[in-house]
Design brief:
mainly alpha, 5-stranded mixed β-sheet, 20 helices, fatty acid metabolism
């Protein structure tokens, strides 16, 4: 039980004296209406403040009743600044006899990982290269400009259309990886600058919502491949994943789809909606955003949330109008050229996006919460793809998924530098570090 004087907390009033708590008591406060967490042995009551958390209330709620020190350090590029928001929430500290880690986690492993992070900081691996990101944005802009020049000089014939589809697909895929960088605050030193550019890139170049992305993606990083906490594996009865969920569904006799054929209908998630109409939006992304609403405006139907997206919305509206006005087939060809004439970007990057993002996670362990330490939990849910110039470019450096998950705010061009340190630490504690060829990674998804 806690000991000491009156506690402060959400009221913002300072505690009369320090109160001490045991892990047994802290772990009881992991409910929706009662959330405590520990950061560097200090205990915070985030129950009411969670709703104002910039990263979303769910991601902070997933750490309730736990030591959130490593998650806190992983997501914030300026922890000192964030401390001013934590100060009014402080209610006490861990009792002197209590270990710094909960649930019998390997304290030496945790300390060694934090030492590794400090080493990476001392090596300036969290400092972004302006030249790298300028060149990266530049090659996207070059593809966009080239596409519009082709329209101006060659019109919208079928050969031009097919070439444009390839160019703009590549541009869209690369813009997707770029928005990922800004979303993780890994480019600029100030969070606000990252957020502003992120809204522009994901809104104007991608036609998606920054709020929607943040809501889902930060949860994924905090608790990867954990049911009820990682939205990427909460597939709303479309797929059953991992080893335990199929058994659970079998016992409860839950059968929303023929799961024994999910390796076949998995590919349907990447067919453009509806039935190859060039609205450029695919089935997987709209299903996620409609069926799993993040309590923010829809990424494509609410342009205001996309930063005034004036490019994708007309294409979407035009495509759905075609779908509902039969006959559909004769108008498909008109719509493809119409979209290009209106300079609406094609987003035929669904296969590219889905295969790259899932090859690091779907073949890995997918299970319920096991309360592992930060290193072990990320390693169990992620794997790497062999490094090469093409693999780095094709995946947006997500072939270094392990390093990215351990250090989400680290600029991607530094992953290869921290990789040997991570492998060495894993070898020391017998933590499996998996790396595979790109082709095998794709095959393993279906497997």
């Amino acid at each position: 039980m806690g000991k000491g004087g009156d506690q402060g907390g959400d009221s913002g009033e300072p505690a009369a004296q320090i109160r001490f708590y045991t892990w047994e008591e802290i772990q009881k406060h992991n409910l929706r209406t009662d959330k405590w967490l520990v950061i560097e042995r200090k205990v915070y009551n985030v129950t009411k403040w969670a709703k104002r958390h910039p990263g979303g209330q769910r991601v902070i709620s997933h750490c309730a009743g736990e030591d959130a020190t490593d998650a806190f350090q992983a997501f914030h590029i300026n922890p000192t600044l964030v401390q001013k928001f934590l100060k009014p929430l402080l209610i006490g500290e861990l009792a002197p006899g209590e270990p710094s880690q909960d649930r019998d986690k390997n304290s030496q492993l945790v300390e060694d990982f934090r030492t590794l992070r400090k080493t990476a900081e001392d090596m300036n691996l969290f400092r972004a290269s302006p030249l790298f990101f300028s060149c990266y944005l530049g090659h996207i802009i070059v593809m966009e400009v080239l596409a519009w020049l082709m329209i101006s000089y060659f019109g919208t014939g079928w050969i031009t259309t097919l070439i444009l589809a390839c160019i703009l697909t590549t541009s869209q895929a690369q813009a997707g990886w770029l928005q990922h960088d800004f979303g993780h605050l890994s480019v600029f030193k100030k969070s606000s600058w990252n957020h502003i550019v992120h809204k522009f890139v994901i809104g104007h170049l991608k036609g998606a919502s920054a709020n929607w992305w943040n809501h889902r993606h930060f949860q994924h990083h905090a608790k990867p491949n954990i049911f009820q906490k990682d939205p990427d594996v909460n597939m709303l009865h479309i797929f059953v994943l991992g080893d335990t969920q199929p058994v659970e569904y079998g016992k409860k006799k839950l059968k929303y789809l023929p799961y024994n054929h999910q390796h076949e209908y998995f590919f349907l998630s990447e067919i453009p909606l509806p039935f190859l109409i060039p609205c450029s939006h695919t089935l997987l992304i709209p299903l996620w955003s409609w069926l799993d609403p993040p309590r923010v405006p829809h990424p494509t139907l609410f342009p205001a949330d996309c930063g005034g997206n004036s490019v994708h919305a007309p294409s979407l509206k035009s495509s759905w109008k075609t779908y509902y006005n039969q006959p559909i087939i004769p108008k498909i060809f008109e719509e493809i050229q119409s979209a290009i004439k209106k300079k609406a970007k094609l987003q035929n990057w669904s296969h590219w996006f889905v295969w790259v993002t899932q090859m690091n996670h779907i073949p890995m362990e997918i299970d319920s919460e096991k309360h592992r330490d930060w290193l072990s939990s990320q390693m169990a849910a992620t794997c790497n793809i062999e490094q090469s110039f093409f693999n780095d470019w094709f995946t947006g450096h997500l072939n270094f998924q392990i390093e990215h998950h351990l250090f989400p705010t680290m600029p991607r061009h530094n992953f290869w530098k921290v990789k040997p340190l991570v492998k060495s630490l894993c070898a020391k504690y017998g933590v499996h570090y998996e790396e595979k060829p790109l082709g095998k990674a794709f095959v393993d998804i279906v497997g």
